[in-house]
Amino acid sequence: MGLLQNTAVPPKERLERSFTGGDAIVILFLVALLYGGARLAFDAPAFIEGPQISLKPSTLPWYTLLSVGRMLAAYLLSLLFTLTYGRMAAYNRRAESILMPLLDVLQSVPILSFLPVVLLGLNAILPQRTAAELASIVLIFTSQAWNMTFGWYQSLTTIPKELREASSIFRLNAWLRFKRLELPFAMIGLIWNSIMSWAGGWFFLMAAEIFTVGSKDFRLPGLGAYLHEAANQGDFRAIAFGLIALILTIVALDQFLWRPLLVWADRFKVEMTESDEPPTSWFYDLIHTSRLFLWFGSLFEKANEGFDHWMIRRAPMKADWDENGSKLNWRLVAFYLLIGAFIIYGGYRAVEMLLSVPLPQWGQIGTGVLATALRVGVSLVIALLWTIPVGVAIGTNRRVATVLQPIVQVTAAVPATAIFPILLLFFINMTGGLNLAAIFLMLMGTQWYLLFNVIAGASAIPQDLKHTSSLLGLSRWERWRTLILPALFPYIITGSITASGGAWNASIVAEYVHFGGQTLFATGIGSLISQATAHGDYPLLLASTLSMILAVVLANRLFWRRLYRIAEEKYRLE
Amino acid sequence: MATNIANAALLKLRHVQQVYTNGQRRFIAVQDVNLTISEGEFVALLGPSGCGKSTLLRIITGLQKPSEGKVLYRDQPLRGVNPHATIVFQTFALFPWLTVFENVDLALKARGLPANIRTPRALDLIDRVGLDGFETAYPRELSGGMRQKVGFARAMAVEPELLCLDEPFSALDVLSAESLRGELLELWTSGSIPTKAILMVSHNIEEAVFMADRIVVMDKEPGRIIAEVKVALPHPRQRKSEEFQKMVDEVYAMLAGQTQPEAVELGSAPGEQGHTRALPKIAISDLAGLLEYLSELPSNRQDIYRLPEELNVDPNHIFSLTEAAEILGFAYVEKGDIILTSLGETFAEASIQARKEIFATRIRRLPLFRWLTTLLSRAENHALDWDVIHTALELEFPKDEAEKQLDTLINWGRYAELLSYNDDKALVYLETPPQPATPSGRQ
Long-range contacts of range A554-560, CB-CB < 8 Å, 24 or more positions apart? Predict the structure, then answer.
């Protein structure tokens, strides 16, 4: 993008500038990359192989690198899934009617329940270390993919009609359409969703690096395992180092990857007006004027031009009307039959398994669901109590925002699962123990969704309404009641839906822990799932997982969706 | 180009129909259209909004497959998007993330041309539409007129035989539109572009008379061709000239001149025999504004095609307002002029409350409105769910249209203080109990 303009009509001042700071950074970056690669290849220390987790601070860069690598692999997988799945759903009506409801259910599935199945399955065909690596990547993938897919699907279905028509009239083939229409149109949403997905990914990475299934103990060297081990041994120095490494990584990713990407993506805004406050990034400013970068760019553009032509020749636009649209494609039929057979067989085996669950266990599951639901509710209420005032303060007051925003961003970026073992150190000897601590973990994982939504809602309150309410001389309470709360309502609902979904999921990590050589558990459905996993009790695992899915889906359909509709219809500020 | 008369037919439409079905009902968007466009012709497709002219354009370019009939291009049936046709879009349809150059270049690239051919051709066209120096600008940095120039450059870059223009000037301000029209005519009449024929969709009569060799007049409900006129005036045409004005009036008379008998004019109620007339979607304050404006003119009349310019509103909107004024009996149309009736004059001069009363007596005459009040008066508490009425209306209109019609009904009824609407419960109810004469089985 934008690089072709350099070949056609070169903006002169750019190319004539001599060596810049940006060039230095590009070179440094390349050097660091080469060095890192070389060291990894030739000089991998012995400790990263064994199951033992070393607490030496010098091991942290390696652990961090391994964790980031896992995240990256899972993210690429998510991206691939997103692009194909979302496209299929957006362009094929028959596929859409199956794929979108499926995605909705997948979204509310407690991801951690599937780890044992994935892990054991992979372990049967692969060496243990590889199986564990793959399983962790699949687990992280399942925490990243859904929102990205939804976002991409939504973008594809909202591309303005005239841009689609122009693409057909000017005969853009599938590749050019993807590159010049779909990807640019969806870019900003895709980047924001990626940022969210990475945050979600960190949460599960921490849980996925240490895992016990039955008698098997799977451990992966990485930041999550390091923090867990440090907390387990009560080594506060190591905890501090681990947290610093984690925060540095997250901040670095934000500064060197996401922020520059957002600045770059600002050009993909569809609005035909200049934006008032475009995002800024010092790193982007430094880099994009660098000569080396431009040089890479023009090299890339040449390859790109060649590739475009190859694609255009290979797959010209399919411009013909679909004459046999109603005729059934036998390959599709075979595919559906296969899926159908699989579902029937799987369903049969599942029912068989469920029937073998004894009645008292069903009772346990019932209490578990109720207990966890209560915990989810409490954590949501606590979150609402503090996020609404703070969010409104940040959203309506610039001065407060400049102070609090960065702090909130960094704190929010630290995955709750990383701090959990540390929290446990404090809660373990209190009355209520894990039953209370679990609420805290849920809270830590979910309050940020709410806070960010409240901030967004508060900053979207129109200035003139604020003026009107001060002209009317409304008291503080009346102003909250008539303006702020109604305006926030849709945002609070949106935030709560995501937050409660996250809280249910977090219960699996929160309600059952191995810690300091002992096993702690609270009453709850998450705890049951974890216990079933630990004991290899698959009927119970299936029954409790299904119960949790049912609870989440029912809560969404019966409670949240209704509130959401009210929010959409009644309290929307346009 | 324009001098090449009587050439081979480029495009033929034979009995083309576009029908949408919604459950049991069929909606005819385009009915039995026969049309031939020959080489060297500049044809304008003229008609009110909703007459299916844009649909027809999409059928001609192959973006849409007609439900019935044949589309022949150079006597070959069209099987998909026509590779020899391009469109200049009303809303420009430029890729906002590509520069002017990249937008034009992309159209050429998609045809598989190598860069060394593309770049000079794109630059040349950008130059020819007068955008030299703006190659690296993004569309958002340009004015509406300049954006549309990019649209023209892109459409002409691929050297189409048939250039289709979808109301290309209607989103522009008056001055840019006028200069762009002149520039296009210049390119076309001088023969400096390889285009063989131009088809322009428009709702602006003057524009069509100014540019086209032939005007195809369409009407709505159902969308169909009602007349064709040759415009034999030589270029450049003089808008002020007598022949030009005569032509404009003649076309106007075809387009909306005939005032039909009241039963046809008002249509029938839903469910009854005959066609239910859709209400124009207008704000009552706008209608009052138009009537007031007319009442202040010496003879209480004005040329309709002058109104958009004088009131500075979209011509489509003027058509809707005129239609509403006619339905309500506030004005009538004759030879391209809108003339206030004495009722309209009274309305324009009345007080707020008196206006409401006049308005109420007028809308009670409308079959659609009568149908709704009858329905409500038979319902429990004289109230009905919005959805219920919407479903009933869907028997007569497509889904979106039914929604718009119901909104208009509620809007008008609220103004006349005949209806109330509770948004929270989505309930429509009668404001005053109906006259004892209306419902049958009630004592």
Answer: A555/A373, A555/A500, A556/A108, A556/A497, A556/A501, A560/A493, A560/A496, A560/A497, A560/A500
* Contact: A319, B83; criterion CB under 8 Å: yes
Judge if ipTM > 0.85.
no
Of A5, A165, A176, the CB nearest to B101: A5
User: Which pLDDT score, from 0 to 100, does residue A566 have?
Assistant: 80
Number of H helices, E strands in chain A: 26, 4
Query: Quick one: tokens of B391?
Result: 């479903």
DSSP reduced 3-state for B70 = strand
Burial profile B90-113: b = 16 or more Cβ within 10 angstroms, e = fewer: bbbbbbbbbbbbbbbbbbbbbbeb
Q: Which residues of A touch B135 (CB under 8 A)?
A: 5, 8-9
* DSSP summary character for residue B234: P
Higher-scoring residue by pLDDT: B76, A14: B76
Task: Determine the Cα–Cα distance for residues A86 and B334; give it in Å rounded to an integer.
Answer: 55
Q: Which residue has the higher pLDDT, A277 or A192?
A: A192
- Are the C-beta atoms of residues A108 and A501 closer than 8 Å to each other? yes
**Residue A23 pLDDT:** 66
Distance CA B307, CA B321 (A): 11
Asked whether the beta carbons of B340 and B294 are under 8 A apart, the reply is yes
Which residues in chain B are contacts of A4 at CB distance < 8 A? 101-102, 105
SS3 for A209?
coil
pTM: 0.74
Per-residue pLDDT band at A45 (split at 50, 70, 90): very low
Q: Is there a contact between A425 and A231 (Cβ–Cβ < 8 Å)?
A: yes
Q: Are strands B337-340 and B331-334 parallel, antiparallel or unpaired?
A: antiparallel
In whole angstroms, give the CA distance from residue A260 to residue B81: 40
pLDDT in tens, A14-38: 444 456 666 676 677 767 766 666 5
**Interchain CB distance below 8 Å, B89 and A270:** no
Q: Using CA of residue A543, residue A544, residue A547, residue A552, what is the dihedral sign?
A: negative
Domain A12-17+59-319+329-570 has CATH 3.40.190.150: no
The answer to whether the CB atoms of A4 and B102 lie below 8 A apart is: yes
Cα of A478 to nearest chain B Cα, Å: 22
**What are the tokens at B397?**
């209109």
